[in-house]
What does this fold into?
Amino acid sequence: MISGVDLKPLSSSVLDLWNIVNGRWNVYKSSIIQKVLIQSQQGKIATSSPSSSTSTTALDQLLLKKRFESMASDLITSSDALVTQLGLQTDKNSQNLILLQIIFGILIIGILVLILYLVASMLRLIFDLTQATSKIKKGNYDL
It folds into this structure.
């Protein structure tokens, strides 16, 4: 129960997709922290020494950029799969909810018809009894 919402555990198919997305996100995040931040610190040190090669640094940066783009693409692909699966479950739940509402509507109408029938039959008996009473009051004792 979180913020008044009762949460259910994820189904196994969605949980597997979530674990993939979460794993890829953690790898992506840790790679950024390790490579970008550490490399930027090393870049500051390397710029102070005159022996650094700019062509190697540019090639390394291009390879690093391609690696991050590939990791980001994998993360987006797995996230899309997760969102698609969640959307399918939401559609299924919506269809089930609509079906339940239709069934309950039919049941309510059936119960109302049954109640009206029972009330009408009781009122018919009471009406017949009052008619008989008024005829007896007028002197017709054959009833």
In short: The radius of gyration is 38 Å. The chain has two helices and no strands. The chain has one domain: 12-137.
